[in-house]
Design brief:
Elements lengths: L1 E8 L3 H6 L13 E5 L19 E5 L9 E5 L5 E3 L12 E6 L2 E7 L7 H23 L3 E7 L23 H12 L2 E3 H6 L8 E2 L11 E2 L2 E6 L6 E6 L11 E6 L1
Helix pairs in contact: 2-3
Length: 256
């Protein structure tokens, strides 16, 4: 079956609803919609975000009210779901784990390391726990799809001003090295697989200095798949014409 998967850091699902910025969902056939940073409990998600009624909704809210949180919408029936607490050990609502057929799908809002040193350390530890876990699932025979806000730009072509951000969390060598490690372990950056090294493609822009209008951005939102799915990738792209957040959606079309 051909599936269309969309990932978007909405930076507050209630704020996005007030802008009617999720209404475009009704105009697209999206098989899995994965949202990050919803900043809400399940019962706080407005009924008005879009008209489509998905059969399965999986929400993981942070223990800290109004922060983080992930939500997944799909008509696919899961064989297993989890909040993956052994990775998200601080219970910050960062993961929807959703299995169907032989696929382990992850919607992840990876930690941001900019606020203080302890958060950078936690981010790197989270990265390592997550990679260890998905590698374990691969050894059990699962194919892996990971989407979400990784909070790191991988290479210099993944942000507009690499030199100015060499010492900024989100582009530190130690953070970028984890993405190298992820790829070395047999995962594929689907956007680069389809688009090669084309520059100037970003998924996040600061609200300051007209960054989005000037396309001074970062590509920090991804779809990764295990390499056994590489030949099934049909398309992978960014949707910069969708507004409502400081991020824009990213999409993957894949035959499973």
């Amino acid at each position: 079956m051909d599936l269309k998967l969309v990932s978007w850091n909405v930076n507050g699902i209630r704020a996005v609803d007030k802008k009617e910025a999720l209404k475009w969902i009704d105009e697209h056939q999206i098989d899995i919609l994965a949202l990050q940073e919803i900043k809400a409990e399940k019962e706080q998600i407005p009924k008005t975000i879009f008209n489509k009624e998905y059969a399965h909704i999986q929400v993981n809210s942070s223990s800290r009210k109004g922060q983080s949180g992930t939500a997944l919408f799909t008509d696919i029936t899961p064989t297993f779901i989890s909040e993956t607490p052994h990775v998200d050990i601080l219970n910050e609502g960062r993961i929807n784990e959703f299995h169907f057929e032989n696929i382990a799908f992850f919607n992840v809002y990876f930690p941001n390391g900019q606020s203080k040193e302890e958060r950078l350390v936690y981010k790197l530890e989270f990265y390592e726990r997550f990679l260890e876990y998905i590698n374990t699932l691969r050894k059990e025979g699962k194919s892996i799809i990971v989407c979400g806000d990784v909070n790191t730009a991988h290479t210099e072509i993944d942000l507009a001003r690499p030199k100015a951000n060499e010492e900024t969390s989100g582009f530190l060598p130690i953070e970028r090295a984890w993405i190298d490690k992820l790829l070395e372990h047999g995962y594929v950056d689907t956007f680069r697989h389809i688009n090669g090294n084309e520059p100037n493609h970003y998924s996040w822009w600061s609200y300051r200095a007209n960054a989005r209008a000037n396309n001074v951005g970062w590509r920090i939102d991804y779809f990764f798949v295990s390499d056994d799915l590489k030949d099934r990738i049909k398309n992978a792209y960014i949707m910069p014409d969708i507004f409502g957040s400081d991020h824009c959606p990213v999409a993957l079309e894949i035959a499973l």
